[in-house]
Fold each of these.
Amino acid sequence: MIELSAAQAIAAIDAGELDGAELFAFYRERAVEHGGELERGGLNCFTWTSPEVSDTPAGPLAGVPLAVKDLFCTQGVPSQSGSRILLNYRPPYTATAVTRLRDAGAGLLAKTNQDEFAMGSSTENSAFGPTLNPWDRARVPGGSSGGSAAAVAAGLAPWALGTDTGGSIRQPAAMCGIVGLKPTYGSVSRFGMIAFASSLDQAGPLTRDVTDAALMLRHLVGRDPCDATSLQFPHEIELPSAERLDGVRLGVPAELSRAGGEAAIEPGVRACFERTLALAQELGASVQEVQLPHAPHALSAYYVLAPAAASSNLARFDGVRYGLRAEDPRDLLDMYTRTRHDGFGTEVKRRIMLGTYALSSGYYDAYYGRAQRVRTKIAQDFAAAYESVDLILTPTAPGVAFALGEKTSDPWSMYLSDYFTVPMSLAGIPAISIPCGLSAASSPERASDDPSPPVPNGGGLPVGLQIAGPAFSENRLLDAAYALERAIDFDAAPARV
Ligand code: GLN
């Protein structure tokens, strides 16, 4: 059963060759055995697993189990957004994205670990401890949807739902060797998603392959009266079928691919990226350089805009309505401050302070207003680039999965993980990450009689390719990703536990 993608499992169930309830029980057992706490030898990718064998709902998804990022509200089931302040919070309603998949026949298998309120790139900022990368347990799975990515890569869930604000679906997908798609902003309802930055947050699939991503997206999209920013997707999401890329014009942004200094691309990542560009040309695509002159400022703008939104969204966690409440408060203010002091982690507090500062009167225009103008420029850059190319390609992240603890004390180096993904988020356009190979082990010069063990250098770890398109170009994006996926023929099996 483990070798079946979600689409293959559905086909097998429909053909009567596989029992939906049996499939759910199989994954539930695996999830409990390998997905739990670190102390029990698990990957710590789940914060909750279904206590019972699902009632396998009817529908086109045939009861195939689904893992869902913690921050999606699921009625009666812990929904904590990776935070102590929401410890054991069980919402009275379910997020639209989850309801839609459930109505289509997906069974809720588990909730997945994440960075607190989706702030992070490594899943280390979780109140429930870090998730491990199944390719190398000493490394992070990326983040913030790291629990979802690790679960799918390790074969503990056939597929998973995540969210992406600045890269949180694409970057962990890249670091775990799976597929992750951030749809066009507004195409999937945000209702019931515990908010981080509302003008950027977007739900999407983390899957083993491109077909599964298309299949899940098909059931996710649609206007929802409960989310005023959601809209009707202009066409049906098709399952991809392209085998070639004839006539497809691919653009490689000069500013991003030549990024040097602190955002420099690791050699192992660059090699995979270049190889994939050559492969795309063999499939009939043309490759040209494009300009995104403001993209190098994306990260700076993002780290004003996202914390500003977060500082406002997180004001609701005051000890009155949800989750944690400080004990024996002296007065109301004491309850607010102690609840927030005890309930929020370091990174969340940092963002609240940054955001509150950026929005304070007198600074508003210098920071927030300016960042908004940069955001507009970036969207215009993409629009101009898409006049001469169909799709834009970059590595998903500058490096492969890094070691646990390597970047926790240096927030800026952590933020740089999203150098290539944040511009698309600011522009609201769709982007997918697919695995494009393993980074080669670059063996550092060693004396032949050196007795020390070789230093692990990130060799043999998955590298992600990011493909971005204009708003609502998901079908074109998925087709191109599918053709490349077939040609790359990435083997994800080594990550399965
Ligand atoms: N790593 C980025 C951040 O910390 C993006 C997170 C996300 O996409 N949710 O904000």
Amino acid sequence: MTFKACLFDLDGVLVDTARFHYLAWKSIADKLGFVFTEHDNEQLKGISRMGSLDILLEIGKLSLSKEEKVRLAAEKNLLYLNYIQLMTPDDVLPGVLDFLGELKTNDLRIGLGSASKNARLILDKTAIVNLFDVIIDGNLITHAKPDPQVFALGAQMLKIENNHCVVFEDAVAGIQAAHNAGMKCIGIGSPEVLGEADKVFPGFTNMKLADLKFS
Ligand code: G6P
Ligand code: MG
């Protein structure tokens, strides 16, 4: 199979914002009076802001009104924005720029497929926005991962068949979204968590186009 496009998740794949999401949600949990661990945070990766809050409240065994939830989600986003305002091009994870460069040299198309409504701001802050042929973010999608919508829309906008796209993901829900779209998926992170991916790499350091071969 010759691939024609790569679709990248953002948080935890191209930049380490997963940590900022964790710290912001942890502040909310602290305020509500329960413990929220980094292990708990795995469940929130790739999940929309409101979906994440629902999981957080389940962990804290709390049930809140719709109004209170809207207020808390906005509060979490303000805390998160404080972290991402400080991001610079140095926050792009190691090996990412070289790998994207190799894709460009080989005429592969590059897309972003993220649930985040802050994706464009992060791409701007880290100065990689111009590397993307298409950007699908949380403002464009109605169905959260593991629904395939975010990646299927990316392929459609690139005018490339789904099975000619490879997805890069750090979240289980994202791997499932890629597979539900009929795409291969490379997991970025640990094989223990991302066992459902077709291949898993710890990051982009030393990753090559030749690694996009699947048996
Ligand atoms: C990504 C992250 C999630 C986050 C979601 C929404 O998928 O992995 O942890 O909840 O985006 O992000 P946002 O920036 O819109 O709150
Ligand atoms: Mg992610």
